[in-house]
Structure formats: C-alpha cells, structure tokens
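Problem: given the chain below (99 residues), write out its structure.
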Amino acid sequence: MNYQKLDAALATALNDVQDSEETSLRVFIHTEPILDSAATTVLESLGISGVTTGKDIFTATLSQNAISQLSEQPWVKYLKRSQQLRLVNKKINIGKLGV
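Solution.
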C-alpha cells in the first residue's frame, strides 16, 4: 500500500477495517486525465462505471485490498475518503444579519 497517495481520513479508516475483502469504504479516485486501456480495465474490474478518456475523478465503494491495489498504480494521483454529509437544520434570523 502506498500511503503517500491516501488522505488522512482514508488512512485512518483503513486501520478500522475488519475484513480486507469487504467493500465498505467510499472513495474518490483521482487519476491522470488520459488513461490507457490497462488503467481502464483495472477501474472497470473494480466495478467503477463511466470510465472515459479525459475523466480524472471517479467515485467507488471499495475494499481495503482494492484501495491497496489502486494506490500502487502509477496513474493514480491520490485516493480520498468520501464521507456522508448531513444537512444542518438551523434557521437563520435575517433580522440580525444587518440586512
């Protein structure tokens, strides 16, 4: 595993993985913009759809083993953990904004 290509959140999440084959981590995969057929094959074999020439960011839910495999590829720039965002239900009092 090339930890230099992983962001801190992903590296931390990998430490908590119990089963290295379970696809449980949502990630952004940042690649070189022009992928050859071998790179396209690797991404598609991991279940990543929409792999086209010129596209350089992909999203996927991957296993620890798949992340390790991708981190070793020379055409992968870095991998970043995707996290579920939550809406904040807070009302803003317009009168106090000075408008």
